[in-house]
Amino acid sequence: MLIPKGALVVSCQARADNPLHGSVYMSAMARAAEAGGAQGIRANGVEDVAAIRAVTALPIIGISKVWDERFSVYITPGFENAEQIAKAGADIIGIDATPRPRDGDPVERLIARIRNELTKEVFADIATLDEAKAAYAYGATYVATTLSGYTEETTMRRGEGPDLELLEALIAALPVPIVAEGRFDTPELVAEAFKRGAHAVVVGTAITNPREITKKFVRAAQA
Ligand SMILES: CC(=O)N[C@H](C=O)[C@@H](O)[C@H](O)[C@H](O)COP(=O)(O)O
Predict the structure, then answer these.
(1) Is 190 close to ligand 1, i.e. is its CB under 6 Å away?
(2) What residues does each domain of the chain span?
């Protein structure tokens, strides 16, 4: 298992509409995260993963976000996406591990192929306890709360802060390392996740998205 217990993992992602979009910026973010003590990096796309691989030996959770109007699944939907990310240098492949339809193998086969054919660890993003149980049964290395609030069934959670209840339910139910991810946006919430038994915590926006961080401060300035 490449992500050590107690690790803070920093997600370094910026979409095309973000002024920090681009592998030069994301690899600098990863270096800054490492210098600050992060023990893992999460990154999206072949270019960013390759650029980050070139500057750090930390474990990289690589994902490939692909938007296809026919499907709701967009985080590493198919085996080819996983293979490209592995070749770019990811040690761990992050996937949408919900049972929702996707362009490619069903999730059970996707997990098996990443483990057997790519010999990589699988980081399973889920939104519910049932999805987590299935991902564990299919052989996921880690199970993470990433998608709580972002699937149809869980949209009511979105404005609510991180899903600590789901985190706790997963820790109680499954012997696999459980990772807290999604809206853990203060040091206090990170500490709370570890107190409840998280194996690791992934923080994105609150560390690596200055546009969103600025908005928070501006809202406070205008309140
Ligand atoms: C739902 C989805 O697509 N989540 C993405 C997964 O890679 C990212 O957009 C998030 O930034 C990441 O999960 C970290 O979460 P937060 O930025 O809240 O700390």
Answers:
(1) no
(2) 7-222
